[in-house]
Amino acid sequence: MAKKYYVVWEGNNIGVFDSWAKCQLQIKGYPNAKYKSFKTKEAAEAAFRGNFSDFIKTGDGKKSPKPVLSEAARAEINWDSISVDAACSGNPGDLEYRGVDTKTGDEIFRIGVFRKGTNNIGEFLALVHGLAYLQKIEAFTKPIYSDSKIAMSWVRNKKVQTKLERSPVNEKLFQLIKRGEQWLKNNTYKNPILKWKTREWGEIPADFGRK
Fold first, then answer.
1. Whose CA, among 75, 80, 112, 189, lies 20 to 30 Å from 130?
2. Is 99 helix (H, G, I), strand (E, B) or coil?
3. Per-residue CA distances from 76 to 72, 180, 194, 201 (Å)
4. What is the spatial distance between Cα 48 and Cα 25, in angstroms, rounded to a whole number?
5. What is the pLDDT of residues 76-101, one digit of tens each?
């Protein structure tokens, strides 16, 4: 596996770190830590001298261009929609999720960080949050895109089937899961929940860009 270098702009300690284990120590327990991996030490050091917002897409010091879509692919996507995604540092690990406007990428909501969560739980919470948001703004038929089949099935069944162990550390997260399940049982919605085709379309617009 190729060696990577990690920049922490905001964390328990900031700087350039030469292993994921060292980076984890700096972001663990730090709300909304800002960090990113880079392929070379030189790129990481250059990034550290800049701003996190300039490097949130890729690990090579450049913003990744939006995928070039064919006309057929562009026609297949419903751009009048929102997209949701989750990011988890470890499994389990620090979890957050967000929703964006599919067309513009503008962030609509961003929630976290929760301790000792999983990506699938974050995807589920993001979908429920998105549905509740669309109900609130009376966008009753606007679709939501997700790239998680598991989270989509949990929403469909109104039940989270996770093997994550409940503990005092993630109690708040489990309370949110319960609230999400209850919302689904108490509310009806017409918003289509659509699968984002990552292989054909590239990363979902709500992706955190931390891969």
1. 75
2. strand
3. 6, 30, 11, 10
4. 18
5. 999 999 999 999 887 788 999 999 99
Please report, to the nearest 10 degrees, the dihedral formed by the alpha carbons of residues 147, 151, 155, 158 taken in order.
Answer: 170
Q: Give yes or no for a contact between 85 and 207, defined as CB atoms under 8 angstroms apart.
A: yes
99-110 per-position pLDDT tens digit: 999 988 889 999
Nearest partner of 151 among 95, 77, 79, judged by Cα: 95
Length of the chain, please?
Answer: 211
Nearest of 12, 16, 26, 79 to residue 49 by alpha carbon: 16
CA distances from 147 to 68, 123, 187 (A): 19, 9, 23
The β-bridge partners of 150 are: none
Amino acid of residue 41: K
